[in-house]
Design brief:
Elements: E1 17-21, E2 28-32, E3 37-39, E4 46-48, H1 63-67, H2 74-95, H3 99-116, H4 123-132, H5 137-144, H6 149-166, H7 171-181, H8 193-210, H9 216-226, H10 230-240
Antiparallel strand pairs: 1-2, 3-4
Length: 244
C-alpha cells in the first residue's frame, strides 16, 4: 500500500477540517482531524484538538514514519512541547512588544511542524530554528541601522546560542541551530533537512507579503526556484496557486 487512507486527505470529509477557538486569545485556529495540537498563529499558545483522530496510528508499526512522531512515546512528545513553550517565551522576551515579529516566528513554527510530518528531521533543531530564526533582527537594526538578511545572519547566532544555552539544549543542537540562523537568508554553508524545512516554512509565511499581486505564472516559477522540500512545495502550490 502506497499510503495510509486514514491519513490521506483525499479520503476525508468536510468535517475532518474545522476551527477551534484559542483559549489564550480567542483567535480561530484551523485544525485537521489528525492534529493533536497546533500553535495559535496570533499568540503562540497551544490549542488542543478536541476531535483528534489518528485511528490505526495507535497500533500501526509505521505510525512514526506516517505521522512524524510515535504516538506511544507520549512522555517524549510532552518534553518536546515543553521545549517549544520555553523557546516561544524566550523569543517573546527578546522581541518585547514587537508583535509583528512574534507572530511571524509563530507562523513559521506552525508551517515547520506541518512540513516535518512528512520530512523526517530532528524536532529539537526544527523547533528551535523556527522560533529563533529572526532573533537577531532587532540587534541588526540597532547596530547596523538595517534589518537586511546579512545583518540578521550576523547578529542572530549569538543571541540564539545564549537562549538555547540557558534552556539547557545540548551542544550539537545549539551548533546546528546557530548555523541555520546564520544562513536562513543566504542559504550559505548548510543544507541539512532541518535547514530546508525552516527555509520553506519561512518562505510560506513571507510570500503573501512580498508578492501580493504576483500572477500564477510568476508564483509557480518562484515556488519551483526557491522551495527545498517536496512537502513545502506542495503546501505552497496549495496555498498560492490552487486559489488563483
Amino acid at each position: 500500500m502506497s499510503g495510509c487512507p486514514g491519513q490521506d486527505s483525499r479520503f476525508w470529509t468536510p468535517d475532518d477540517i474545522f476551527e477551534v477557538e484559542c483559549s489564550h486569545c480567542g483567535h480561530a485556529v484551523e485544525l485537521f482531524k489528525i492534529d493533536g495540537m497546533r500553535r495559535c498563529p496570533r499568540c503562540g499558545g497551544r490549542v488542543v484538538n478536541p476531535k483528534v483522530s489518528i485511528g490505526c496510528a495507535q497500533w500501526c508499526k509505521q505510525a512514526k514514519e506516517c505521522l512524524g512522531y510515535d504516538p506511544a512515546q507520549q512522555k517524549d512528545a510532552s518534553t518536546a512541547l515543553s521545549l517549544v513553550d520555553q523557546l516561544i517565551a524566550a523569543m517573546k522576551d527578546e522581541f518585547g512588544d514587537d508583535q509583528r515579529r512574534i507572530t511571524h516566528a509563530v507562523q513559521v513554527l506552525a508551517y515547520a511542524e506541518e512540513i516535518m510530518r512528512a520530512e523526517p528531521a530532528d524536532p529539537r533543531v526544527v523547533y528551535a530554528a523556527a522560533v529563533l530564526h529572526d532573533i537577531g533582527i532587532q540587534q541588526a537594526e540597532r547596530k547596523h541601522g538595517s534589518a537586511a538578511g546579512k545583518f540578521q545572519e550576523l547578529e542572530g547566532p549569538p543571541i540564539a546560542r545564549r537562549i538555547m544555552t540557558e534552556l539547557g539544549l545540548d551542544a550539537e543542537t545549539i551548533t546546528h541551530v546557530c548555523r541555520i540562523v546564520g544562513s536562513h537568508h543566504s542559504a550559505g554553508d548548510i543544507d541539512t533537512i532541518e535547514f530546508r524545512i525552516l527555509w520553506d516554512a519561512d518562505w510560506l509565511v513571507n510570500i503573501p507579503g512580498e508578492y501580493p499581486d504576483a500572477d500564477p505564472d510568476r508564483l509557480r516559477s518562484l515556488i519551483e526556484k526557491v522551495f527545498k522540500t517536496e512537502t513545502g512545495t506542495a503546501i505552497a502550490i496549495r496555498l498560492f496557486l490552487q486559489q488563483k
